[in-house]
Backbone:
């Protein structure tokens, strides 16, 4: 027994060293002429070593599993993930010398598959998104490994009181700003772990900030938030990788969320493209969803004569989507004409209306 404890202790130390080598992610101000009294900020999570917000989650999940005694020397790590979580978990598995298998739908972007393989992980494909859970649990039994199960453990693996979680980072970075306590923080939900962390942190510290979770089409989270029927299902894809789910995930905590907004998929793509024009930096589709939600809240605030800041999350970079969301031919094949939607967003940013 002593031997496995020493391995676990060394593994935790290795992950902590990775954390200390990583500076915090940037908070980028976004100045929009139409919203002079409503400064917006992008919390840019694409700058993590593995390129997404999921770097935080993967680190938390590994520490949680290690300290619970679930992951030991030689354990095979299994995860159900459509991409970014798997990329980040593959990175930490390689760091600890553990084999890693990601269970994912065949439709996952080739760039993400390549990244998982780059970090030494294997990809195990299923036909439909709703098959990943059962297949991952089965593989864990077959390999004698551990199924990380981000969709169950995301909300409890992160210390929501602080300990450099994303919420603490946001509030500390805004300290010197005109509106140091934001009026809104906007995020999407994949597992629900990020929204749970931010919502709990806001309450724990007594901030006046409200949390808005944006949900893409075909996701059950918004409906669940309204009706609380946990058996809701939708077999269709959300069209926005990383957020929106076909079922209610155990990590999704509805009561910490002040408001939910539905964002049409075409508007997520259009907002993502326009944000790239504004910042000179490409982000993924879920960032477009967040930006679109932030704009909707800003226009409501302006109409009501309110002032205050809004923070929205940039979850990953656009490099993973060059052959999909940033490819005009791919967009056309999906039946989307982005131009009128981009023009509408551009007008809103310029006029606030």
Residues:
């Amino acid at each position: 027994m002593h031997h496995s404890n020493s391995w676990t202790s060394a593994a935790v130390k290795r992950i902590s060293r990775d954390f200390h080598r990583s500076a915090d992610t940037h908070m980028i101000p976004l100045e929009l002429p139409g919203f002079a009294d409503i400064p917006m900020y992008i919390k840019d999570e694409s700058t993590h070593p593995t390129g997404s917000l999921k770097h935080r989650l993967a680190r938390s999940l590994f520490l949680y599993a290690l300290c619970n005694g679930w992951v030991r020397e030689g354990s095979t790590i299994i995860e159900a993930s459509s991409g970014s979580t798997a990329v980040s978990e593959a990175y930490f598995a390689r760091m600890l010398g553990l084999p890693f298998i990601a269970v994912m739908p065949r439709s996952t972007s080739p760039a993400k598959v390549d990244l998982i393989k780059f970090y030494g992980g294997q990809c195990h494909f299923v036909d439909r998104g709703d098959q990943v859970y059962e297949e991952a649990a089965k593989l864990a039994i077959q390999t004698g490994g551990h199924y990380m199960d981000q969709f169950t453990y995301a909300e409890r693996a992160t210390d929501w009181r602080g300990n450099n979680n994303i919420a603490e980072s946001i509030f500390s970075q805004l300290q010197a700003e005109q509106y140091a306590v934001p009026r809104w923080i906007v995020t999407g939900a994949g597992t629900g772990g990020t929204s749970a962390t931010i919502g709990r942190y806001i309450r724990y510290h007594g901030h006046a900030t409200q949390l808005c979770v944006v949900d893409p089409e075909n996701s059950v989270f918004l409906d669940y938030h309204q009706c609380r029927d946990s058996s809701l299902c939708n077999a269709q894809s959300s069209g926005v990788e990383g957020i929106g789910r076909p079922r209610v995930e155990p990590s999704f905590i509805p009561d910490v969320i002040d408001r939910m907004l539905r964002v049409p998929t075409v508007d997520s793509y259009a907002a993502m493209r326009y944000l790239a024009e504004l910042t000179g930096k490409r982000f993924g589709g879920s960032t477009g969803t967040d930006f679109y939600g932030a704009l909707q809240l800003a226009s409501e605030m302006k109409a009501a004569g309110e002032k205050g800041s809004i923070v929205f999350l940039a979850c990953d970079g656009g490099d993973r989507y060059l052959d999909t969301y940033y490819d005009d031919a791919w967009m056309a094949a999906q039946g989307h004409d982005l131009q009128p939607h981009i023009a509408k967003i551009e007008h809103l940013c310029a006029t606030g209306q």
